[in-house]
Design goal:
With 69 residues, this protein is mostly helical. The protein contains four helices and no strands.
């Protein structure tokens, strides 16, 4: 898996692309999950991966509780 993911030709491909590349030559139980876990733990992929969520909104003030003495 390391060679398929980190080689100069694949350049840290996504888990889906890596699965389809390896699927042509190899097969084992839970292959898709193993590949997804491997790619999710790759430090370079974590640093370069683009954020896929909307930007967070502005901070909202919390209500101040009223104390009854």
């Amino acid at each position: 898996m390391e060679e398929a993911h980190c080689s100069a030709y694949s350049m840290h491909s996504s888990s889906t692309k890596m699965y389809w590349t390896l699927h042509e030559y190899y097969s084992w139980p839970h292959m898709k999950g193993d590949i997804a876990r491997y790619v999710s733990k790759c430090l370079i992929c974590q640093q370069v991966k683009a954020e896929r969520h909307r930007p967070f909104g502005l901070m909202q003030p919390l209500p101040i509780p009223e104390w009854k003495w």
